[in-house]
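Objective 1b of the project was to move from sequence-level analysis to a structural picture of ligand recognition. The entry below was assembled by the postdoctoral researcher (A.K.) and checked by the PI before modelling. It contains the amino acid sequence of the target and the SMILES of the bound compound, copper (II) ion.
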Amino acid sequence: MKTLKIFSIVIACLMIASSVFAQKEKTESFKVAGECKMCKKKIEKAAKEAGASFASWSPETKILKVSYNVNTSNAGSIQQAIANVGYDTPKYKATEEAYKSLDECCQYERDKATAKCCDGEKCEKKDGECAKAAVCKEKGCGDMSCCKKS
Ligand SMILES: [Cu+2]
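Corresponding predicted holo structure:
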């Protein structure tokens, strides 16, 4: 009976140890907004800092291919890190602030559906919404230029 107990404890320990030390590499691809080679450097650097062992972004296809150890990283934290430096990912959007701090050449055209209309300084708000929301929508105001002019 005692041997069986010790035996099962040993098995349990082995299972825990193997799950902790196993190098489970996962590779996946997702879209990341960006423009040029400078974007490429920043996107790949952010991915690697978030734990990617491999990161390669193509300015042509806007696809980022990453590999990471599932025990130490995940796609969510990699995407969050990329969004933090200003680039939109499928799970996380970059803040207006991060986006605007990008070099001019790197300010990719943002997804119009997700652009926030009222982030322009001079934009008036009405009932918590952009007073010119309808105009913005009509113009497909991805760069919010119509809001800034108000
Ligand atoms: Cu760029």
